[in-house]
Predict the structure.
Amino acid sequence: MDVPDHIDINGFKHISYHIDTYSEDELISKSESFYKWLNERRSVRDYSDKRVPKEVIENIINSASTAPSGAHKQPWTFCAISNPLIKSQIRKEAEIEEKESYDARMSDRWKKDLEPLGTNMNKPFLETAPWLIIVFKKAYNLDENGNKQNNYYVNESVGIACGMLISAIHNAGLVTLTHTPSPMSFLSKILNRPSNERAFLLLPVGYPKFPTYVPDIKRKPLEETSVFYE
């Protein structure tokens, strides 16, 4: 059956969309293999300083930017940093906030829960990793005259993009770690970001140091993370 390559809806062009479909057996196989591959991903804190080409980071960011967003506003900015002076400044400011958190902000229970992960206030990966990607959320947009324009479901949209960013990093054969020094306002100052942007997440990106060790922890099984209504 012939169908038009586009139609108009509310005066806007909508193009014909196609996606490959599979048999049930293929669906099961592809979904299982993707899960097994993604389940190999781990958060890594020890990095090699081996170079990662800028083009790889560009492709990773482009992949994250395919994420759905409220009203297709795409309310994110990905700041990619390889400059060692900027990375050093970020580490210095992040460790100031981390020290304050470990000394005064975090409860004893919180610190106890972190013990199996081996975290502390020292963040050498912020300088060692060849790249830092800092994700900023746009609370609102600014037009050419500086007037505010609404964005919608900003946290949800940026959160989805970050998940796709982490998957794209894993797909490239690289590792990362979600880092959220709190507060993160120092990142806006260091990177001279506009007033409508707020730091959302910091990710070091690179190769793992050899050898690298990660905590021997397990993910919750399906029966603890899902409920099916059939």
Q: What stands out?
A: The chain has a mean pLDDT of 95. The beta strands are 6-9, 12-15, 76-81, 131-138, 140-142, 148-150, 175-176, 197-206. The chain is about 40% helix and 15% strand. The CA atoms of residues 175 and 206 lie 6 Å apart.
